[in-house]
């Protein structure tokens, strides 16, 4: 692993967390895969050698349980969903170089090779543990076959995770008062020999790893509780039939046991890259150089619910087998629907197939998911928000600029005018290229996409201010020359997020080859001399009637599912939790699902401030201009306090200020921060004691 800026001379691998082959895909699931695809495409525009791989997670107890309900084998059940995912991802322009699954021969062989390496390096031992057993069913109870009380927080929990409480990973035997999900009867604990990876031995290594690991702040900060605490060894075997067998050629083999699903699942990253290498040849891409060579760039793009597995378990597994550690882990936030969690049981979801059947282009959703928020922030999807982003950014800004620039150029100059690119526009494009590269080195796909939209916005303003339709050809030529160059740059920079639409723009420009093969350097390469008039705008607007129709369909589906008596909620992993009848469901979801990680909270710079002056703003009914002392400086902040507080009484009031909020302009007055208040009456937040202005709030 290196920490050189991208592009490096070393091969890169971008992976996405494996989708669990246990249900249909909805737009919430797609966020991780769109983000990973956009990031890998963007690295290629920098000139980075990169492969993009993933695969379906085929093992584990939920699949075994659901397969039994359908009366089919776990393999048949999981393969059906795997094939569905394999067909769905390309329809959203998620272009994996290889997409495998954990039950294929390559992953089985590699997983068992990993375990052999752990055994040879003395990282595995065997011990007797308490395992839940159902006397009535006469069988052992792995993971999801047992439920009970979390030993850490006391909440109801599954056998592998405290899903309703502290979210901690649980080992076999941890659950208090176990109950069998097979019969509903109390389970009993019996002694059973299992295999363990000496995870505790890697505590010092993991401390160093998490300090040098790049990626999102949630992935860097969330695991510290486990790494710096009492790190427990990991049980790597389970009592079930469905999974990869523990290698039977090892001394002290684990008869009738399979490997824990979180052993073979991440090894699919290695297996999938190996399959890709075998297909294209090691001269094109060498998987062994990536995983065991001197330097490589491995980036995992995952959902934030599996951070621990990728930053504690997985690097330890790699280290134990003498494989390279990842350079970065980027954990995406969740996607909510109209402010609530997706619920598969209530059909409150926008299904992947449904989105396409409604006739929407896949690149519209890609743009929304990739740029609606930073990697680690939650995205709230609604048809209204989707419409707004498509109309105001893609249609009004990007599509409008590309169409008007190329149309004017084709009609008046039959292509690119014979003129020099102006210094100002060249500088503006070069700055966008630098911003784009900086964003990718910060693992910020959203910011990378924004550079393209900002450049198109600049182009719209430029052509509007220059008014070339009022100029003669000689005067208009340099303006249109600049605009055509801007179209080319926008197309290159937006291609990773809207690849299909970028190819349309590339074709309209008459450029050779494909936009997908262009690099950032092509942003300033001269555009083609000639091209015809564009066929039409790249993006069509979505009208209000269409949005109303879509919301009506969604409401009808949810009402129908709820009327059927199903009162369960489901998250993006399609696991269910039951809400009691006296629970305020909407309020619970708002509190439970709209969460941020600790790292995101740390990004907020909250300071004690003191209001020095307050006055009204002309033309604004509810805004006040405040002068606030925050210790190191005095800030001007606009706040909606007029009519809710006596202006004269505000002077000298201690308040809490968000000091690192982006500057904004309201009614012509710049606001540099935000004063926090509670409720509709704007109850100002303050401190209990006499904290001085500038004191940081933790």
From TrEMBL:
It comes from the Archaea. Its main location: cytoplasm. This is Methionine--tRNA ligase. NCBIfam families: metG (TIGR00398), PRK00133.1 (NF001100). One of its GO terms (biological process) is methionyl-tRNA aminoacylation. Belongs to the class-I aminoacyl-tRNA synthetase family. MetG type 1 subfamily. Residues 600-698 form the TRNA-binding domain. Residues 558-582 are annotated as: Disordered. Gene3D superfamilies: HUPs, Isoleucyl-tRNA Synthetase, Domain 1, Methionyl-tRNA synthetase, Zn-domain, Nucleic acid-binding proteins. PROSITE patterns: AA_TRNA_LIGASE_I (PS00178), TRBD (PS50886). Residues 563-582 have a biased composition (Acidic residues). GO terms for cellular component: aminoacyl-tRNA synthetase multienzyme complex; cytosol. The gene is metG. It comes from Halarchaeum rubridurum. It is found in: Cytoplasm.
